[in-house]
Amino acid sequence: MKSAVETLNPTRVRLSIEVPFEELKDSLDAAYKKINQQVTVKGFRKGKIPNRVIDQRFGRGAVLEEAVNDALPKFYTEAVNEGELNVLGQPEVDITELKDGELLAFTAEVDVRPEIEIPDYSGIEVTVDALEVSDEDVEKAVEQLRERFASTNPVERAAADGDVVTIDLTAKVEGEVLEDGVAEGVSYTIGSGELLEGIDDAVTGLEAGGEATFTSELKGGSAEGKEAEVTVKVTAVAARELPELDDEFAQMASEFDTLDELKADSRKRLENSKQYDQATQAQERVLEELLKLAEVPIPEKLLADEVQTRKHNLEHHQLGQMGLDLEKYLEIQGKTLEEFEAETSEQAIKGIKTQFILDELVNKEKLNVNQEELTEHLMRRAQSSGMSPDQFAQAVVEGGQVPMLVGEVARGKALAVVVEAAKVVDTNGEIVELEDDEDVAEEATEVVEAAEGASDAPAEEKTEA
């Protein structure tokens, strides 16, 4: 076999391949055997039809077609390996010559990873939010905990903001009560915004037994999005009572003996959370600067496939779970289809650039992923997907996606290398020293996943660049 590579542009090549006919022997034998099992000829046992009879009865062309289809992937792969090409996606194959007994010639056009020069990233400098926890932040956190331990007591008065009311609802559209438009015994906290728009005004001021009617757009069900006339009846009113903020509350709501100890713990938790947010912000901004520094040609077909994959996953997975279609989603987002497609294309370009640059950095820095790192990453992805680690691992293995997970971890480690070399300052002008531990690389992996548009579900379709 002879092959030649022609570079069409930085991201696409054409392979020209010539195969001497004798190298098709194994594929021809397999073709005759396959046809033998599929056809019957009077006078011959199934599977025992001579090759010349198959040629006479079914045509030599059918045999050649079967043999060529069988042989092409093997010769294409050999040519790719010989040319040391890093191909992306499936090739477009064109058979240019087929001479029975002499020669098979074909071309294969395919996208390839562009050669990327890693820029000098040592001068990257980014600014992040300062790590500050105010007394107000602590008070808000304690107040939220206090809300969780609130009690309710029935009252004989009109409902007011913050009260918990028990209500019955009936929704009508065009004068007809909806089949799924009746609900009884619903518990609702006035002011929470958890039900229909307009319900707070309707129930405020009503005592038990009181009734009101209002108009609202339905958020779900068979008439989602339609205007409905909703009748609400209050059957009970209860006042929420918050516990006193004292040592007794601290003992009830936590493992601490005093309120001061509880507040100190709340401050520490907030500091840890903000430290995590600060590290993530640093990684995101360093990645943005890295992408600006590098020139990365984007393969057109890969981009088109990635855009289509993102749209498909949004429509058939994420929106489907929320009971929305693309049209309704765009309406909620206040975007036109053109704006959505432009945004999706921009996100896809960012994802491809991120993968290309960081993969190149993985090779340059000779970064490896050990079993412990892969296991930790798999467990986090399993938790995000709502699956058990065993279920997630099984789905990943069955889907042949282990290399994809390894790639995610490796790219996270590559980003961590760039972040370590960058200068990170906060809004107060103070140098931020990010902790150098295993968590940094895992946090960086999450940032990379977000940039690439990775999904938590292993079964999701995703273009592998």
TrEMBL record:
Name the top EC class: isomerase
Q: Which reaction does it catalyse?
A: [protein]-peptidylproline (omega=180) = [protein]-peptidylproline (omega=0)
- Answer whether the UniProt record assigns the keyword Cell division to this protein: yes
Q: Where is the composition biased (Acidic residues)?
A: 436-446
Where it sits in the cell: the answer is: Cytoplasm
Task: List each copy of the PPIase FKBP-type domain by range.
Answer: 162-215
Does the keyword section mention Cytoplasm?
yes
> Gene3D superfamilies, per this entry?
3.10.50.40, Trigger factor ribosome-binding domain (3.30.70.1050), Trigger factor, C-terminal domain (1.10.3120.10)
Primary location group? cytoplasm
* Keywords, ordered alphabetically: Cell cycle, Cell division, Chaperone, Cytoplasm, Isomerase, Rotamase
Please provide an example of a Pfam family that matches this protein in its UniProt record.
Answer: Trigger_C
Q: InterPro entries attached here?
A: PPIase_dom_sf, PPIase_FKBP_dom, Trig_fac, Trigger_fac_C, Trigger_fac_C_sf, Trigger_fac_ribosome-bd_bac, Trigger_fac_ribosome-bd_sf, Trigger_fact/SurA_dom_sf
Q: What does this protein do?
A: Involved in protein export. Acts as a chaperone by maintaining the newly synthesized protein in an open conformation. Functions as a peptidyl-prolyl cis-trans isomerase.
What does the domain comment read? Answer: Consists of 3 domains; the N-terminus binds the ribosome, the middle domain has PPIase activity, while the C-terminus has intrinsic chaperone activity on its own.
Family recorded in the similarity comment: Belongs to the FKBP-type PPIase family. Tig subfamily.
Q: Which PANTHER family match?
A: TRIGGER FACTOR CHAPERONE AND PEPTIDYL-PROLYL CIS/TRANS ISOMERASE (PTHR30560), TRIGGER FACTOR-LIKE PROTEIN TIG, CHLOROPLASTIC (PTHR30560:SF3)
What is this protein's record name? Trigger factor
| Species annotation | Streptomyces brevispora
Q: Encoded by which gene? A: tig
